[in-house]
Amino acid sequence: GELESMLNTHGEDLDVLCSLARAHEQLGDQLRAAPLWLQASAIAGEKARAAALGRAACRAYLAGGDADSARRVLDGMEAWAQSEEMRRLRVEVERVADNPLSLAEALEELALSSMAPAAERASLLVESAVATERGSDVKLALARAQRAARIAPQAAEPQLFARYLEYRTRRAGGRARSRRHAGGIRLRLGTPRPARPRSHSTRPARLA
After folding, report:
1. pTM of the model
2. Which one of 62, 65, 134, 204 counts the least CB within 10 Å of its CB?
3. Cβ neighbours around 87 below 10 Å, total
4. For residues 94-123, average pLDDT
5. DSSP-assigned states of every residue in 43-70
């Protein structure tokens, strides 16, 4: 099209790149728009604009279902464009990627660095704890839920989820303890161990 011709004629022009990226997005071709946003970010003179264009590239990759490329964009920007918006984008990326432990980390980082109200930060930590439990790390899930409960002591959700995880942790460690406790209780009460059934001899009686 005309914009591609202009790009070929004028080389890397920021306005042409942005216009072409927007045109692809309007046509629903997010994965063609994403590298153009990234290219525009690389030549933008101002840091704030470069970061905004990088985020646009990340969102376009996400909208196109390419979570790996979206993550690579964020990783490339991590050293120079950290912000709450970037951390929220990281959460979106990990949600699409569906890696529960990576999602839990991203949620915890956002919750602990955000300037949002306590209830919102606690809710992020509860979601982090849920993802951690889904990733089979119940102890770390409990620690995150307990932190959420401390941040928002009046909110019901963090308190209830922390208690649920406490119960799960106790139950997981309780099976071996219950066997030991049962033996100790029998000794204190003087109750003998259940006798094993004796096996009956099947040898024939000796003849006189």
Report:
1. 0.75
2. 204
3. 18
4. 95
5. H-SSHHHHHHHHHHHHHHHHHTT-HHHH
